[in-house]
Design goal:
This protein has 152 residues and is an alpha+beta fold. The protein is 22% helix and 35% strand.
């Protein structure tokens, strides 16, 4: 139980630091945590101009990146706390979200085994729960390598 509590705290800290990060991990911007529990992370995010495609809606690549980030957070929010590495990411785009709209991202671990994990991220409009996208993300779970005495 102590490992789970520690890993949930890691998720909270990581999400809090996202606005200061560089690269793809900055994409969520100032998302707000709704809840973090074992194997599940729910956040809400206001769609910004930086996240839009040329027709003015949430970019599909941005959606896939958000799915990757938050399903990884859901995996960290487990007793093992392993983020894993992507094997497959599949997104179905169901409707559009425009600048200024608030999107709820509900990410959860469907099944986690010894070497593989299966996760899902659902994107919904906050105003009426209209589905925006559903993404399935398969990850390989890799234990971190221990440093040998020679490399220390």
């Amino acid at each position: 139980m102590a490992a789970l509590a520690k890993n949930i705290a890691r998720v909270h800290q990581h999400i809090k630091e996202m606005p200061k990060m560089i690269g793809f991990n900055r994409i969520p911007g100032t998302c707000r945590i709704i809840s973090v529990e074992e194997g599940r992370v729910r956040v809400e995010m206001d769609v910004t101009a930086q996240q839009l495609n040329p027709v003015g809606t949430l970019h599909g690549g941005c959606t896939a990146t958000l799915a990757d980030i938050f399903t990884t957070m859901a995996l960290i929010a487990t007793p093992r706390g392993l983020p894993g590495v992507s094997v497959d990411l599949h997104c179905s785009y169901l409707s559009a979200a425009k600048e200024g709209e608030t999107v709820i991202i509900d990410s959860q671990v469907i099944k986690s085994g010894r070497n593989m994990a299966f996760t899902r991220a659902e994107f919904l409009k906050k105003t009426d729960n209209t589905p925006i996208a559903v993404c399935l993300h398969t990850k390989a779970l890799v234990e971190p390598k221990q440093k040998s005495e020679e490399s220390q």
